[in-house]
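Internal tracking record. Fields below are filled automatically when a chain is submitted to the structure queue. Please do not edit lines marked as system-generated. If the sequence contains nonstandard residues, flag them in the REMARKS field before resubmitting.
Queue: standard
Priority: normal
Entity type: single polypeptide chain
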Amino acid sequence: MAKKLKIKPYADAVSFFRDHGFDILEAPGTSNRIFLKKYNVSAAIEQAPDGSAKIFAFPGYLIGGEISKLVDKGYQKFLKTSKLEVPATADHLTAMHQFSEELKEGIGATSLYNESMGTVSEAYVYDRVKDRDKPDAARPQRPWEGGSKKPA
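SYSTEM-GENERATED OUTPUT FOLLOWS
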C-alpha cells in the first residue's frame, strides 16, 4: 500500500537541515533559496510557490568549489565540472548517496527504490557514437553517408 507523502514547508525543511549537521549558505541576491553542504556534497533548495521546499540544484560532489555532475559512461562514473572531469571513487558515490537520501528526507520528497539502491547519475553516456541520441535532422552528416540523408 502506498504511503501518503508528507510535504514539508520550506521553514521546516531548513530547520531539519540545521538540526542534522548541514552547512547552510544563503544564495546571494535571492530570498528563500539556500545551498546545503555535507560530506563535501552540495545542493540547493528553494521555496516553491505552494510554500514547500523543492530542489533547485541537484546534489553533486564539490570539486574546486563547484558542484559536479555525475556522468555514467558505462564502464566508469565521472564527476564533471565546467573545467574538470575526474573518475568517481566509491567514497564519492557513498557520500553523494548518503547526502541525497538525507536531502529527500529533509524536504519530504519520495525516496524511490532504484535511487535507494545506489547513486543515480545525471547523464548516461554508454553509446560511443556521438550525436546518436539526436533526431536524424539534427545529426551531423557522417562521411560514409554519402551526400544525402535518408528521409525519416
